[in-house]
Design a protein that fits this description.
17% strand, 7-stranded mixed sheet, 235 residues, Spore Coat Polysaccharide Biosynthesis Protein SpsA, Chain A
Length: 235
């Protein structure tokens, strides 16, 4: 089984080495693809150094910040073209523990998409700041109720079975920012793919800073409202 782990990066120096070591120690058959959006803190140098030492580490360096959704699509399309069986998408900041990849792989014969759920366990996001926790919970409430989407759809830690999921259905999600995460899951759910939620615990990041800005939050809110009217009202 060919497995590719796709990891978008933007100024994640230090985290790159940590996540690489954890993934490869737990998943000997996996390869890693870093998609970097013009980091200026030494992240690229760190990725290059790791790739020279280990052929399992691949990278795509982009000239500007094109968005996390764009990075996910780029990575999934890369995996599809290179004939990988499985693609896992995850963050580089240490909040996505690679130990869950093995749990995802156990479900892949029965489901098309394995999605991580931060709301299943009581204290899964206990360590988060009040503001981040509030934004996440409000977003989850709006998406769940406006789009009738029962999953934790705004997280980027997922597994896609590329033997059953059509790449055209992934690319049908048009947003290139954070909204790609829930938009893609909504479309896949509408297409009747089998989706499995697994419960995870997500700690706060140890190194670096969150890349989500006030602008990202505002844009995401209006995109959700427009999407709701296009899919649920006008349609």
């Amino acid at each position: 089984m060919k497995i590719l782990v796709v990891i978008p990066t933007l100024n994640e120096k230090g985290n790159v080495s940590l996540i690489t070591e954890k993934i490869l120690n737990l998943n000997k058959d996996a390869k890693i693809l870093f998609i970097d959006d013009n980091s200026l803190d030494g992240t690229r140098k760190e990725i290059l150094s790791l790739s020279k030492k280990n052929k399992k580490i691949k990278f795509i360096f982009r000239k500007s910040k094109l968005g996390i959704g764009s990075a996910h699509k780029k990575g999934i399309n890369y995996a599809f073209k290179k004939n990988y069986d499985i693609v896992v998408t995850m963050d580089c900041d240490g909040t996505h523990d690679p130990k869950y990849i093995s749990k995802m792989l156990k479900e892949v014969k029965k489901f098309d998409i394995i999605n991580t759920n931060r709301f299943g366990k009581k204290n899964a996001i206990k360590s988060w700041s009040f503001i981040r926790k509030s934004i996440t919970l409000i977003r989850h409430f709006l998406i769940k109720n406006l789009l009738d989407l029962p999953y934790d759809s705004s997280g980027g830690y997922r597994l896609y079975n590329l033997k059953t999921v059509k790449i055209s259905d992934i690319n049908a999600a048009k947003h290139n920012g954070y909204s790609f995460l829930w938009e893609s899951l909504f479309i896949l759910n509408e297409k009747k793919y089998l989706i499995k939620d697994i419960e995870v615990i997500l700690p706060t990041r140890n190194l670096g800073n969150s890349k989500m800005s006030i602008k990202d939050i505002v844009v995401a809110f209006f995109y959700l409202i427009i999407f709701f009217f296009l899919w649920k009202v006008i349609k």
